[in-house]
TrEMBL record:
<feature type="region of interest" description="Disordered">
    <location>
        <begin position="1"/>
        <end position="41"/>
    </location>
</feature>
<feature type="compositionally biased region" description="Low complexity">
    <location>
        <begin position="14"/>
        <end position="35"/>
    </location>
</feature>
<comment type="similarity">
    <text>Belongs to the bactofilin family.</text>
</comment>
<feature type="compositionally biased region" description="Pro residues">
    <location>
        <begin position="1"/>
        <end position="13"/>
    </location>
</feature>
<feature type="compositionally biased region" description="Low complexity">
    <location>
        <begin position="154"/>
        <end position="172"/>
    </location>
</feature>
<dbReference type="InterPro" id="IPR007607">
    <property type="entry name" value="BacA/B"/>
</dbReference>
<feature type="region of interest" description="Disordered">
    <location>
        <begin position="145"/>
        <end position="172"/>
    </location>
</feature>
<dbReference type="Pfam" id="PF04519">
    <property type="entry name" value="Bactofilin"/>
</dbReference>
<protein>
    <recommendedName>
        <fullName>Cell shape determination protein CcmA</fullName>
    </recommendedName>
</protein>
């Protein structure tokens, strides 16, 4: 009523001085388990508990899912699905932390951490994987290796047979 909705930031000439670069913004809530950002702030989209979002998400560097997100394909730098959060669809990220549920296709070019309450259903490709006791993966898991393209599992690889008329230089 008598208070302004957003306090003015302190000016460099004020008696308290400028806010330090690493200080949290007034009114900004910290997300538990989120990595601390040392550089400029990332563009973050938080889908809160009880909120459901369908469609595409663009230009979000960090996506935090506490509610439900359904999307055909999202690209971001970081994905965090909290306990109780659900992501359905496809997502490609650098790093992901999963304490809720992902149902779909997940590609992680960096590290994937599945917490004890995390469930991954579908297909996942990742470079590094950490699964806490109780974390679940149901579906197909493929590890990304440096310098080598992803290859199918040995049981899925087709057998190479020489073409008719071609011989082999190897002894039987």
């Amino acid at each position: 009523m008598g208070r302004t909705p957003f306090p003015a930031p302190p000016s460099p000439n004020s008696p308290t001085g400028a806010m330090p670069a690493g200080a949290p913004r007034p009114g900004a809530a910290a997300v538990p388990g989120a990595p601390r950002q040392t550089g400029p702030e990332r563009r973050t989209l938080v889908v809160g508990r009880g909120i459901s979002v369908q469609g595409s998400v663009q230009d979000a560097e960090r996506l935090v899912v506490e509610g439900t997100v359904e999307s055909s394909m999202i690209q971001a730098t970081e994905l965090q699905v909290t306990h109780g959060g659900v992501f359905r669809g496809g997502v490609e990220v650098e790093d992901a932390e999963l304490a809720g549920t992902i149902d779909g296709t997940l590609t992680v070019n960096g590290s994937l951490t599945i917490r004890s309450t995390g469930r991954l259903i579908g297909k996942v490709k990742c470079r590094r994987l950490q699964v806490e006791d109780g974390g679940q993966i149901t579906g197909q898991l493929e590890m990304i290796t440096d310098g080598a393209p992803a290859r199918p599992l040995a049981s899925e690889a087709p057998k190479a047979e020489p073409a008719a008329g071609e011989g082999s230089s190897e002894a039987p």
